[in-house]
Amino acid sequence: QVQLVESGGGLVQAGGSLRLSCAASGRTFSSYRVGWFRQAPGKEREFVASITWSGGSTNYAASVKGRFTISGDNAKNTVYLQMNSLKREDTAVYYCAVRKSRTQPTYDYWGQGTQVTVSS
Question: In this structure, is the dihedral angle defined by the CA atoms of residues 70, 50, 15 and 77, taken in order, positive or negative?
Fold first, then answer.
């Protein structure tokens, strides 16, 4: 009931920047939190950042804190992930996801992902 489409990935040099977008449609009125996750080759999927629409609360993984910023534009139903000072270890497929519950950590809807590759 919620559709998510990621965009903005690409190839950048270490130290560069990218901004990812997650456009949401469908029954977005029931959404509580939107998160970004990533999965690198040979590694498990990991949490990157999340944002709550009510109150604007944000969370970040320690590996990206201070370099990445998550934000939202309610009028456009879009969440962004600004990535600065990119490192080789940031290379991964990045996914956005929607969590409906305020208390349960499970994310209910996922996008298809966008590839981010950082060269050095």
Answer: negative
